[in-house]
Amino acid sequence: MAAFTIAAGTGNWFSALALGVTLLKCLLIPTYHSTDFEVHRNWLAITHSLPISQWYYEATSEWTLDYPPFFAWFEYILSHVAKYFDQEMLNVRNLNYSSSRTLLFQRFSVIFMDVLFVYAVHECCKCIDGKKVGKELTEKPKFILSVLLLWNFGLLIVDHIHFQYNGFLFGLMLLSIARLFQKRHMEGAFLFAVLLHFKHIYLYVAPAYGVYLLRSYCFTANKPDGSIRWNSFSFVRVISLGLVVFLVSALSLGPFLALNQLPQVFSRLFPFKRGLCHAYWAPNFWALYNALDKVLSVIGLKLKFLDPNNIPKASMTSGLVQQFQHTVLPSVTPLATLICTLIAILPSIFCLWFKPQGPRGFLRCLTLCALSSFMFGWHVHEKAILLAILPMSLLSVQKAGDASIFLILTTTGHYSLFPLLFTAPELPIKILLMLLFTIYSISSLKTLFRQSFTVIAQAGVQWH
Amino acid sequence: MEKWYLMTIVVLIGLTVRWTVSLNSYSGAGKPPMFGDYEAQRHWQEITFNLPVKQWYFNSSDNNLQYWGLDYPPLTAYHSLLCAYVAKFINPDWIALHTSRGYESQAHKLFMRTTVLIADLLIYIPAVVLYCCCLKDISTKKKIANALCILLYPGLILIDYGHFQYNSVSLGFALWGVLGVSCDWDLLGSLAFCLAINYKQMELYHSLPFFCFLLGKCFKKGLRGKGFVLLVKLACTVVASFVLCWLPFFTEREQTLQVLRRLFPVDRGLFEDKVANIWCSFNVFLKIRDILPRHIQLIMSFCFTFLSLLPACIKLILQPSSKGFKFTLVSCALSFFLFSFQVHEKSILLVSLPVCLVLSEIPFMSTWFLLVSTFSLLPLLLKDELLMPSVVTTMAFFLACVTSFSIFEKTSEEELQLKSFSISVRKYLPCFTFLSRMIQYLFLISVITMVLLTLMTVTLDPPQKLPDLFSVLVCFVSCLNFLFFLVYFNIIIMWDSKSGRNQKKIS
């Protein structure tokens, strides 16, 4: 019976949380899935049936391969398991094929790959110290962080309903962050390089990595006042970092370089023809910009400042993915968005360079880079808000100020994901899960920091 | 209570699990001409909306009783009428007389599932939350964990939100009844329980414990004084609630008789289909259903049922206590399930509800019972293509119970409430010290058998000569487990010694 007890994991709250959310994911299998389901089925088919030279050229389906090569290899490995479920899904011509076995296989593959995410969360919890807080389990920072990450609403609905593979990718990112916290910089850098070659959206946070590793790893020591000590520069470290990045990139892009397909790969990876805003507008700065442009053009038409014949017929609000010109305000080019993004991340990068505060400072910079790129980037998906929410969770359980910002970020960010699920049967699910996560995050963080909140309140009273 | 937010989260988890299960198939989906319970409920909305009350229970050209005729008491009919009004507002095609037979669409499924969720949210879930909050002598965290486990019980979720029924209404009313009676609000409690009986006549399985407990309370208060007053008040409440529910059917004697005929179909036989009770299991060896005449079957089941539940009920009259009441609910309902006439496999839910109520007192045995009860529904769930949700919800329930109560650490004699029993046995058999270990081994065997049978039913095809082999095996194994539980619960009731705690609960 004792062995059974250990096997059943009594008292091991982390396994219970992980197992519980996995069971919830299994219950979400029959929900609505978006076109991303067909996208991944198509990629399984492409990587399985065609030679490598065709992968980035194949265009039978409109959902062409637009992730870096590591992801393509990942789909290739998956396809070899897929053939035992349903051989038909691997046929490139079977567009929109979604038999029950295909559905089961794809959903289970996402659930299975989340194992990496669970491991990463486990590692992140080790980096949190919770000695000063209460003895009750549900009030420990580790417990709260585990719930905030494992049961994250955004990840659940994007991965397990809408259908994507963000779980294990965020697992890689969180793992690399954890390794940096644990001062295992080479591993952290390696993991991030690998991650970049799985999904290049993580370029949003690459500046943070680059500056942090350069400043805090390549310069091995600081002057007593914290500023940079130029003679502590370690060539060995720089070269080893460079080597790691180079080797990973070589492994990933090498075959395509040999086939002279690099331009094609890059044009697939960075499709600038797609337009300023994604089909469903990401709630970023350009959405406001477009709205302002629309309002001004309507006003302009009413007040007869504009000539109706000069206005382009198609509008930004039709939900299509195309390029448009703005009517009143100056049109936005990809270069302009890049410049705006760089200006936005400059303050945090400066802080990271001139006043490094260790891994925590790095994490803050990373979150800011993610947010800035989200706000000012070109063709941003609303799902990219998760890039800011998940790292912020790590900060939120350690300082009260971060917790309050996190609550605002996560509640609005998750709410902005609602349009992704627009079918009637999924409406109760998204409302219930959103309420669940929001109520839990607010109440648990409030309980965690209630001592500091009361101190602040008392200080405020005394000040008056 | 403090930590209200944790209770809210528990309720939200319960609702999420319910709704995700409801995305799956329902009973009789796409299976003309008869379809299943889902179509039955839709048909009742059609009948109650389009026909006058006098014709609801009668056979006529508009109301063919062979096609899912109404066979629940009037409150179900009123509920269907209410849903029909909403349906008329959304899409009249759903309840059009005759033409809406077998109507199936995504929108309609959404509507029907929503009606179940609303009924659940209004009646059953508040009762569970209130019950857990009113539990005595346990910490707040344990109360919340208790609520989580009860709300995650797979059997009710799968039947109500998968197969499609409205058990949460009758079970919810019964739970309100238990709450009222345990907290000394006897009139409200009995009113709630009368509503439960008038919603589904199967709740009569719980009626004897209610009767005995209330009678015992009256005796305790003294039949010459307050007790008699209470008795009269209770009788009036019961009669008034019945009259109110049956009012349209009391106008003519024929109406009342016809309703009763529909509610208690005594012509139907000892059992129908495969069910995990004694008669069906016995039938495997000796075909008693065909050998014995109908009235002998009736008398036999009557005798067995009452003989098995009599000891517990008599004890409840003599020593009414809240704890004894709950355990007697379990043993009574189990006796009825095992020995009664025309029992359906879904009636196991009537036993599961009281077992959920004693989850905090004997977590190990309750969890075991609830797992077996879900397992006994397996043939029905497989027919409705609910394999994935049943496996997942069972695992979730098991996980919740294991982490909330650490059930595997609570297997000593004391914690199984068998201490006084084993002390009595040890007077005659001094070597009787292995009870706890024996029960643990039995649990292991039981779980392994259930898992194996599930795997076999899902993966293998039954042999040609015995097409029902797996269903019969499932019923047989479940029946054996249930018999063991019947003995166990009766032992607890009979050997429950009077303690100070019990005395405090009776005023």
Automatic annotation (TrEMBL), chain A:
E.C. number: 2.4.1.-
MF term (GO), any: dolichyl pyrophosphate Glc1Man9GlcNAc2 alpha-1,3-glucosyltransferase activity
Transmembrane segments: 104-122, 143-158, 188-214, 234-259, 335-355, 361-378, 429-449
Pathway: Protein modification; protein glycosylation
A biological-process GO annotation: protein N-linked glycosylation
Entries under InterPro entries matching the protein: Glyco_trans_ALG6/ALG8
Broad enzyme group: transferase
Domain of life the protein comes from: Eukaryota
Keywords in alphabetical order: Endoplasmic reticulum, Glycosyltransferase, Membrane, Signal, Transferase, Transmembrane, Transmembrane helix
Family the entry assigns: Belongs to the ALG6/ALG8 glucosyltransferase family.
Protein's name according to its UniProt entry: Alpha-1,3-glucosyltransferase
Organism whose genome encodes this protein: Papio anubis
TrEMBL record, chain B:
Name this protein carries in UniProt: Alpha-1,3-glucosyltransferase
Keywords for the protein's UniProt record, in alphabetical order: Endoplasmic reticulum, Glycosyltransferase, Membrane, Signal, Transferase, Transmembrane, Transmembrane helix
Source organism of the structure: Papio anubis (Olive baboon)
Catalytic activity: an alpha-D-Man-(1->2)-alpha-D-Man-(1->2)-alpha-D-Man-(1->3)-[alpha-D-Man-(1->2)-alpha-D-Man-(1->3)-[alpha-D-Man-(1->2)-alpha-D-Man-(1->6)]-alpha-D-Man-(1->6)]-beta-D-Man-(1->4)-beta-D-GlcNAc-(1->4)-alpha-D-GlcNAc-diphospho-di-trans,poly-cis-dolichol + a di-trans,poly-cis-dolichyl beta-D-glucosyl phosphate = an alpha-D-Glc-(1->3)-alpha-D-Man-(1->2)-alpha-D-Man-(1->2)-alpha-D-Man-(1->3)-[alpha-D-Man-(1->2)-alpha-D-Man-(1->3)-[alpha-D-Man-(1->2)-alpha-D-Man-(1->6)]-alpha-D-Man-(1->6)]-beta-D-Man-(1->4)-beta-D-GlcNAc-(1->4)-alpha-D-GlcNAc-diphospho-di-trans,poly-cis-dolichol + a di-trans,poly-cis-dolichyl phosphate + H(+)
GO molecular function: dolichyl pyrophosphate Man9GlcNAc2 alpha-1,3-glucosyltransferase activity
An example Gene Ontology CC term for this record: endoplasmic reticulum membrane
Catalytic EC class: transferase
Tagged with keyword Transmembrane: yes
Cellular localization per UniProt: Endoplasmic reticulum membrane
Pathway: Protein modification; protein glycosylation
